[in-house]
């Protein structure tokens, strides 16, 4: 792609020519774009796509993929940002072009680290899955052909020949469905996940795959291709980065993915150590609450716990001196020799604040990072309780936190369905007594900020409705009871917190 | 039939390698028509010699070289390895990380000992016509699957020399298959899992069950 500072003018392509370059509303992004665009458009396209991919991520967390709500919200997001999504709409050229170019721009930004690549691939896959799901059946064949995938639907005669076998080899598919569905013939090696479990009919080196299974295969292909492409892009990155017009933009883009990373807050030094105990029950997310409790009880935490909790504390405003004091006080109670602490542990604390070694100011872990990496083992207290705790253990914990049974079962269901962050949002709603937490959780420090905002800011605390939201009468009575007791405790805690934190949150909007 | 005296083996082997071993067919197979340059020359062989001495990374320039070396070494066992990026006998001269295995036939190994829990005539390394029937059945079943389900055309079944058979699948595309697909094929063919439990027979009439 060439870049010029010329003012942008609409290309004067005739209708047919335009449609020819983008025959479908979705694509595999096999060919990079080859036109000139202005720097401004470059930037805008990139930003719009980042917005889109972040919505994809948030919607995927807040709703089950494929449901009515998910689909309609994602569609409106695409429409709002003017990217392509549906066939047979008016004037499809521009949205498809935007989609094409913006994808390739983001490749430049997101190829740079393993984490970025993984995030990018995940969202692009979800996006493709959505677009494919609303593609009309007759368009599927054309799309597959144009994407150079060796998938061809077999003729009806061929289908009838093999009908029995295909029915027999597909799990959960009744005979009638097979007759209606298209069957695709692909080389067996491309259907690894299907044939290894004998879930597809094989004949003479080909797998006969019904439509619904083809999607999984297509997505795998897409992931493999994109992964390779990103690796290639990373290698040619130095050439791109040498263009100083692009360098700042690309850096900004990949940084903006992490959203707020809570590393440099204006609230440093506004929390005192003796507030931490009460804050841990009121405003800490469960992961940090359990780490704090374990620290107090055992006067020790292992490395994973120290990292996760220590950086979180930094994010809520502890200074280096406070942190050193905090950890040392606690460890000494565990009969640790003060000198040993100074020698062994204080260096690490200073390191995590960026005062030693290569002086990186480490950022507190996001939810995704906690959920996906470094799972806890025996003797560890870090990780995400919704992800890493046994359901039984999690239930007990929630009970000890005085969450109502109705709330507990909702939370457990969400955790079981792998919606860990939504489960945590539910926990937030329950302990703060609000219907809707009002944010999409992706960082423990975000939980803390939002919690403090509710407890101290000018916002009205939303009361729990007395009418049951769930059909059972019992939980709602519990809820009402909890609501009033929660309100009561909130009031008293408000008084306590106000003193220390008034200034802290005066800057908040 | 005379009983076999292991002390005679070295002499017998010498004779075998001079008179009986099918060098030209062996070479013709592994050379694959000479279509790909150096395919034979980059193939690894390993020999197990008398007293269990094991040497890897043997490779040869042509049939004559192979013959000479085998007659010199009199190996008790010969393993055919993969085709590498360089001549295996020079692998130490190659830059670190550059010496890689590139292609290999897909090989199935069926051992009579796998049937020890269902045969009563023999055990471990012994075989007899009675229990060999089990082997024949296995061969027929797997061969049919490889041919009809996977479309493999070039399948070579050989007696391994002791208590089992090997099947070498030599199709060009198969030689390039990734290890993931290879284990997928094995998984497809596996029915008896986990020692105790036998999974119930699965749907298709054409499907294979060991």
UniProtKB/TrEMBL annotation, chain A:
Region: Disordered, residue numbers: 461-482
Gene Ontology BP annotations: DNA replication initiation; DNA replication, synthesis of primer
Residues binding [4Fe-4S] cluster: 287, 367, 384, 424
InterPro entries: DNA_primase_C, DNA_primase_lsu_euk, DNA_primase_lsu_euk/arc
One annotated GO molecular function: DNA/RNA hybrid binding
Keyword Transmembrane helix (UniProt): no
Co-factor binding details: Binds 1 [4Fe-4S] cluster.
Cofactors demanded by this protein: [4Fe-4S] cluster
Stored CDD domains: PriL_PriS_Eukaryotic (cd07322)
Domain DNA primase large subunit C-terminal: 278-448
Family: Belongs to the eukaryotic-type primase large subunit family.
Task performed by this protein: Regulatory subunit of the DNA primase complex and component of the DNA polymerase alpha complex (also known as the alpha DNA polymerase-primase complex) which play an essential role in the initiation of DNA synthesis. The primase subunit of the polymerase alpha complex initiates DNA synthesis by oligomerising short RNA primers on both leading and lagging strands.
Subunit comment: Heterodimer of a catalytic subunit PRIM1 and a regulatory subunit PRIM2, also known as the DNA primase complex. Interacts via (C-terminus) with PRIM1. Component of the alpha DNA polymerase complex (also known as the alpha DNA polymerase-primase complex) consisting of four subunits: the catalytic subunit POLA1, the regulatory subunit POLA2, and the primase complex subunits PRIM1 and PRIM2 respectively. Within the complex, POLA1 directly interacts with PRIM2.
Name used for this protein in its record: DNA primase large subunit
Lineage start: Eukaryota, Metazoa, Chordata, Craniata, Vertebrata
Gene that this polypeptide is encoded by: PRIM2
UniProtKB/TrEMBL annotation, chain B:
EC number: 2.7.7.102
Catalytic reaction list: ssDNA + n NTP = ssDNA/pppN(pN)n-1 hybrid + (n-1) diphosphate
Family annotation (SUPFAM superfamilies): Prim-pol domain
Keyword flag Coiled coil: no
CC annotations in GO: alpha DNA polymerase:primase complex
Keywords of this entry: DNA replication, DNA-directed RNA polymerase, Metal-binding, Nucleotidyltransferase, Primosome, Transcription, Transferase
GO biological process, one term: DNA replication, synthesis of primer
Pfam families, alphabetized: DNA_primase_S (PF01896)
An annotated Gene Ontology molecular function: DNA-directed RNA polymerase activity
Keyword Zinc-finger on entry: no
Root EC class: transferase
Family according to the record: Belongs to the eukaryotic-type primase small subunit family.
Protein name (database record): DNA primase small subunit
Organism from which the protein derives: Macaca mulatta
Origin organism lineage: Eukaryota, Metazoa, Chordata, Craniata, Vertebrata
Gene (UniProt): PRIM1
């Amino acid at each position: 792609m060439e870049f010029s500072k010329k003012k942008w003018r609409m290309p004067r392509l005739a209708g047919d020519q335009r449609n020819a370059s983008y025959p479908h509303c979705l694509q595999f992004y096999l060919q990079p774009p080859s036109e000139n665009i202005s720097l401004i458009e470059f930037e805008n396209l990139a930003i719009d796509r980042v917005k889109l991919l972040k919505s994809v991520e948030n919607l995927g967390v807040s709703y089950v993929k494929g449901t009515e709500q998910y689909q309609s919200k994602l569609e409106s997001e695409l429409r709002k940002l003017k990217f392509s999504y549906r066939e047979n709409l008016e004037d499809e050229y521009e949205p498809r072009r935007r989609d094409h170019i913006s994808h390739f721009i983001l490749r430049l930004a997101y190829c740079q680290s393993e984490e970025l690549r993984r995030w990018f691939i995940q969202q692009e896959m979800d996006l493709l899955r959505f677009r494919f799901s609303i593609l009309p059946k007759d368009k599927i064949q054309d799309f597959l052909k144009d994407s150079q995938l060796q998938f061809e639907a077999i003729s009806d005669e061929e289908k009838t020949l093999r009908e029995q076998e295909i029915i027999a080899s597909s799990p959960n598919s009744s005979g009638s469905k097979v007759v209606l569905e298209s069957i695709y013939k692909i080389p067996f090696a491309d259907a690894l996940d299907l044939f290894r479990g004998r879930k597809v009919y094989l004949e003479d080196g080909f797998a006969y795959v019904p439509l619904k299974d083809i999607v999984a295969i297509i997505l795998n292909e897409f992931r493999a291709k994109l992964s390779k492409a990103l690796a290639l892009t990373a290698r040619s990155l130095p050439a791109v980065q040498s263009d100083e017009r692009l360098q700042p933009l690309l850096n900004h883009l990949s940084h903006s993915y992490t959203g707020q990373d809570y590393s440099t807050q204006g609230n440093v030094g506004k929390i005192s150590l003796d507030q931490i105990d009460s804050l841990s029950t009121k405003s800490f997310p469960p992961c940090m609450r359990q780490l704090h409790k374990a620290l107090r009880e055992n006067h020790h935490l292992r490395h994973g716990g120290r990292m996760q909790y220590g950086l979180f504390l930094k994010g809520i405003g502890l200074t280096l001196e406070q942190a050193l004091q905090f950890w040392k006080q606690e460890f000494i109670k565990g009969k640790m020799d003060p000198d040993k602490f100074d020698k062994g542990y204080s260096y690490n604390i200073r390191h995590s604040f960026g005062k030693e070694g290569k002086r990186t100011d480490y950022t507190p872990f996001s939810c995704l990072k906690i959920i996906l990496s470094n799972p806890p083992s025996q003797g560890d207290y870090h990780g995400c309780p919704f992800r890493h705790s046994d359901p039984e253990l999690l239930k007990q914990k929630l009970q000890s936190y005085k969450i109502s049974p109705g709330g507990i079962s909702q939370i457990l269901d969400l955790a079981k369905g792998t919606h860990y962050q939504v489960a945590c949002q539910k926990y937030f709603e329950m302990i703060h007594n609000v219907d809707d937490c009002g944010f999409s959780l992706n960082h423990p420090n975000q939980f803390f900020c939002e919690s403090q905002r509710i407890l101290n800011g000018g916002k009205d605390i939303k009361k729990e409705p007395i009418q049951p939201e769930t059909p059972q009468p019992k939980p709602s009575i519990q809820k009402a009871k909890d609501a009033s007791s929660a309100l009561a405790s909130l009031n008293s805690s408000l008084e306590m917190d106000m003193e220390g934190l008034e200034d802290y949150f005066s800057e908040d909007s | 039939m005379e009983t076999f005296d292991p002390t005679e083996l070295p002499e017998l082997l010498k004779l075998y390698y001079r008179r009986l071993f099918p060098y030209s067919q062996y070479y013709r197979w592994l050379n694959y028509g000479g279509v790909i340059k150096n395919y034979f020359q980059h193939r690894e062989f390993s020999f197990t010699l008398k007293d269990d001495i094991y040497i890897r990374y043997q490779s040869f320039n042509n049939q004559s070289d192979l013959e000479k070396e085998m007659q010199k070494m009199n190996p008790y066992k010969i393993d055919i390895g993969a085709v590498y990026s360089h001549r295996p006998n020079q692998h130490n001269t190659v830059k670190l990380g550059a010496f890689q295995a590139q292609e290999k036939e897909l090989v199935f190994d069926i051992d009579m000992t796998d049937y020890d829990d269902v045969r009563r005539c023999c055990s471990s390394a012994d075989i007899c016509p009675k229990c060999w029937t089990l082997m024949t059945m296995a061969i027929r079943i797997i061969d049919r699957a490889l041919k009809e389900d996977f479309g493999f055309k070039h399948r070579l079944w050989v007696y391994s020399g002791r208590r089992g058979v090997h099947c070498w699948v030599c199709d060009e595309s198969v030689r390039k298959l990734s290890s993931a697909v290879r284990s997928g094929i094995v998984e497809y063919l596996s029915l008896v899992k986990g020692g105790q439990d036998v999974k119930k027979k699965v749907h298709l009439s054409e499907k294979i069950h060991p």
